[in-house]
Design a protein that fits this description.
This protein is an alpha+beta fold and 488 residues long. It is built from nine helices and 20 strands. It has a 17-stranded antiparallel β-sheet that branches. A three-stranded antiparallel β-sheet has the order 1-2-3, with no helix packed on it. A hairpin with a 7-residue loop joins strand 6 and strand 7.
Length: 488
């Protein structure tokens, strides 16, 4: 039995056993604003903290080692090409055919375009698997050990209503985000090449022949251990990204659940939101999914598409309204906050991921090595990330999160955060363990801030407060900060 085939068996058997660089203190006006926000928050949740600052854990700055760029990685695209109308039209036609071919094995029943210009193919969900059977996950609140009313809150119902208004398709069909062929055509006539070159190495600053120097900034917190899942409530933002000095800017917030098989390459499940104009063709915030079974190599998958095969053979869409690639409604600075409960947890043979109150899709354990993620998660990280792939000696202007440096006060409509962060333990016999708060084992966690002059973080743990619990704030304005002067 191959390791990929054994992976599903091992996961099934295991689960069957038990079915801070901070800014100055706020001004008086900011204090007043904070008080108003806090008062509103208290009306929403009586257990919310009332102190001017939340319990804060110290942040230790670590030097981030350069990661090895996969040998088969391709350089990212530069600026869009100047094309004649006829060449552009020809490329668009070629790309549409290629995207259709990549989905030929799926039963597409409709294609729709939403108000924001995004296009979706609606498919019969059973057409995604060889046997026509879909993984069956228990209700999310049962998995999380919560009451149904704690998961399906009034805020969640409001968010779902807004999504349902935009995402309308045939009854029972599930949507797949359809890549923007007109946007891709500005770079290449090959859909496979576009996907391959959109997979970027996870490095701080690395000089690679054919790539130039690529830089990444992180503000992250991670826990190493033995887990099966993670969960948190993520605030949604639409940060400004620097398209003047960078052809391929990106700003995101996410979690990454990972493991590395002995002698193998890193494997991950990553979920969150991102702004990436070169990928989507707009500056909106998008829900994104990233999977890698081979250290960010040629087997990696972005949303529903792999570098070699699209859609992902290892991804089965389950939600009739929510799908990776879709446009998100962001928070409004100083006013309204948009949030999403997100996470990952397994059933025998599958990892399931959720957004808001529903499972949006599943990844078969066979996508990973039997001794890697298929046998358990060994590290969970929550973080903000910035990509600056045109190294010119100056830092990027891209915002992380809301564009505000992290500051531990409960004026949450100003900051990008994740709250109520939890980990699902893996018992020694491989079965599902209990959920515990992210910072329960602090100081075992590891923090990474690549440059506190450009971006930073604050984190904390309030065990008496089930609303905030373990929390993390990340953010910063990049070169718009006077002390953020040069690349890493």
């Amino acid at each position: 039995m191959t390791t990929r085939r054994k992976a599903s068996y091992i996961l099934s058997c295991a689960l069957a056993l038990a079915t801070a660089g901070c800014l100055a203190e706020p001004t008086a006006a900011e204090d007043a604003s904070r008080a108003n926000v806090q008062a509103a928050q208290l009306l929403r949740d009586p257990g919310a903290p009332t102190s001017s600052k939340l319990p804060v854990l110290p942040v230790e700055i670590e030097e981030v080692p350069d990661h090895v760029v996969p040998s088969d990685a391709k350089p990212p695209f530069g600026r869009p090409e100047a094309l004649s109308a006829s060449v552009l039209a020809d490329r668009v036609a070629q790309l549409e055919r290629q995207i259709d071919d990549s989905r030929a094995h799926l039963e597409i029943v409709a294609t729709t375009t939403t108000d924001d210009g995004s296009t979706y193919d609606w498919i019969v969900p059973e057409s995604q698997t060889e046997d026509g059977k879909l993984p069956q996950f228990p209700p999310l609140w049962e998995v999380l050990g919560k009451k149904k009313s704690e998961v399906i809150t009034p805020d969640v119902l409001a968010a779902r209503a807004e999504i349902d208004r935009r995402m309308k398709g045939p009854s029972g069909a599930v949507p797949l985000y359809r890549p923007n062929a007109r946007h891709i055509a500005q770079y290449t006539a090959s859909y496979a090449e576009f996907m391959e070159r959109s997979i970027k190495p996870a490095s701080t600053c690395v000089m690679v022949p054919g790539f130039g120097t690529q830089c990444r900034y992180w503000s992250s917190s991670s826990q190493a251990g033995s887990y099966w899942g993670t969960s948190g409530i993520l605030s949604l933002w639409r940060p400004s990204v620097d398209q003047v000095n960078n052809a391929t800017p990106m700003s995101l917030m996410q979690f990454a659940a990972s493991a590395t098989p002995p002698g193998g390459l890193k494997e991950t499940i990553e979920l969150g939101w991102q702004v990436q104009p070169a990928f989507y063709g707009d500056t909106n915030s998008h829900l994104f999914l990233f999977l890698t079974p081979d250290g960010y190599g040629s087997g990696s998958c972005y949303n529903q598409a792999c570098t070699t095969t699209a859609p992902v053979a290892g991804w089965v869409a389950l939600s009739t309204t929510i799908t990776p690639g879709m446009t998100l409604t962001p928070s409004v600075f100083g006013s309204s906050v948009q949030e999403a409960l997100i996470g990952v947890s397994p059933i025998p043979g599958w990892f399931g991921v959720w957004w808001l109150d529903q499972w949006i899709g599943a990844i078969p354990a066979t996508f990973y090595d039997a001794t890697g993620l298929a046998s358990g998660i060994t590290s969970v990280g929550w973080y903000g990330e910035i990509a600056d792939n045109e190294h010119d000696g100056t830092a990027t202007n891209s915002d992380m999160g809301s564009g505000q440096f992290a500051f531990p006060i409960p004026a949450w409509s100003r900051y990008a955060y994740v709250r109520d962060v939890n980990l699902q333990l893996r018992n020694p016999n491989g079965s599902l363990g209990n959920w515990q708060t992210f910072y329960t084992t602090w100081p075992a966690s590891s923090e990474t801030v690549t440059d506190v002059n450009c971006y930073n973080m604050a984190r904390g743990f309030d065990p008496g407060n089930t609303f905030w619990n373990s929390w993390l704030i990340v953010g910063g304005p990049g070169r718009n900060s006077p002390n953020c002067l040069s690349d890493l």
